[in-house]
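Cross-posted from the bioinformatics board.
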Amino acid sequence: EDQVTQSPEALRLQEGESSSLNCSYTVSGLRGLFWYRQDPGKGPEFLFTLYSAGEEKEKERLKATLTKKESFLHITAPKPEDSATYLCAVPRGGGKLIFGQGTELSVKP
Amino acid sequence: GAGVSQSPSNKVTEKGKDVELRCDPISGHTALYWYRQSLGQGLEFLIYFQGNSAPDKSGLPSDRFSAERTGGSVSTLTIQRTQQEDSAVYLCASSLVVYEQYFGPGTRLTVT
């Protein structure tokens, strides 16, 4: 069965303290991995798509990487405005995305 | 440009009543999706529309749930005879590129 697992469930960082979030998956025939950011009371906001192992994408302080078994979202020198829940998802055919439970990131000034 | 919009933003209903939730996708997006997000749960896929093709209804939890998309644009998710376990945030998304989904703000449904 296709599964997506994110860790840690919650992460507290001080402003400027770099770290990484993990998304591991078990799917047959990966057709991409997607990262989203979700702020409280809002819908998820699309961040990145990664299609093949070794691929990297960057946006401001965020960098997403992909291996054959997992993806990392690296956050460099985070700021309080980076606080949100970060979700990863994989496709399961027919337009359906399977989401992980998310990592709730809190960045304190 | 305008993003995905959903209405109402909040809906409180009594158990057993029917509710309709509306989604206006991004103009030009051919695909539309409905998800459900319950407290402490991840996003749960409900249904997917692509152009004029028959929708993928594989995620609908029961026959009390139905959805339609009129004119390839606006979609309505209907829940009949609501139950307390239907309480959740219902999210709509649309996309031009398959899987790169852009979400609306959601409708928070509370069944009392």
